[in-house]
Write a structure and sequence with these properties.
Blueprint lengths: L1 H13 L3 H16 L5 E7 L4 E4 L5 E9 L1 E4 L6 E3 L4 E4 L5 E4 L7 E2 L24 E8 L8 H4 L5 E3 L1 H4 L3 H14 L5 H24 L7 H4 L3 H12 L7 H8 L3 H12 L3 H19 L4 H7 L5 H12 L3 H8 L2 H23 L1
Parallel strand pairs: 2-8
Antiparallel strand pairs: 1-9, 2-7, 3-6, 3-9, 4-5, 4-7, 6-10
Helix pairs in contact: 2-8, 5-6, 8-9, 9-10, 11-12, 11-14, 12-13
Amino acid sequence: MRKNLDFILNRLTARGCRYDCRMDVLSDVVTTMRIGKPHSARVSHRAPFGRRFSAVEAAGFHVVLAGACWLLPPSGGPIALRPGDIVFLPRGSAHGLADSADRPLNDMPTSLRRVEPAATPPPYGPEPEPSAMLLCGAYLLDRGRSHPILDDLPDVIHLPAPTTRHTMLGTVVDLLDGELAEDKPGRDAMLRALLDALLLHILRLWLTKQADYQASGWAVALQDPAVADALEAMHSQPSRSWTVAELADQTGLSRATFARRFATLIGQPPIAYLTWWRMTLAARKLRETDIPLAGIARDAGYASEYAFAHAFKHEFGCAPGQFRRSQTGTSDRQAISAEQLSRREISRHEMAR
């Protein structure tokens, strides 16, 4: 009886922060999956225009600031875009933008992965008003270890203006547009923070909408109090030796009921997901830090390097040390390469104007 009363009291006192706790899992996933820095630029198009964007190893986005245009997705019919509309492409799929749905497309000299704030130079002399002004950009994500939350997303997410206007997402877009329009001190740090906020608000809005009519999947899991509590617990303390019974206690459900609900919504048992997440965190630390293997093993919840190495090899097919030697500096090299290619392509684009 005392245990049940404590559980009810905890639920009542935590009710006000329930939504924020669930979003912590999403933030954790995005932070872990991201590599390098995001890129963004204001881009103007003057009719007639038809631009083909090639597929990239990044998550791209378009935000319509003014005017109108058409998105030509990789599959399905054209999508009319109006001011305030947001298009997010989680897998960087090839697509087109045009002033009309039947306009022939020409290849863009730059890609969404390589746009920079300086990609659209200031006009020299009077120019005709653009028929569409967009905010475009991309996030570099680790495709070698993609999280199921991101895998669940469709190739194209369209958020029409009525769902974004007068919301936190709309406010972030306005702030981002303002930062790109002027070169002020602290601009680089501000852009990174705002682009992170933009990504999280896009995912939050989409997942919330999907949870209204899906029966399973991560969109529903993040809204389910029991599963969300278990996920928050595992992400908060991944090194803890969690058992299904202990996770069930966090939710107030019986062990069998909790395990069944978690597997139904997430697609795998609780401990299987915990192991996958631990190995994902460990791989990132091996790639990006010089933390000793003993420390990484401890952070992953293993009492010995041997046990950790065995689990890691089972997941990745190689020992942790071998993985580190093959991956060290990968993120930095990718970021530097993207920077160099960006500036090179931007220069070529400006020479062609």
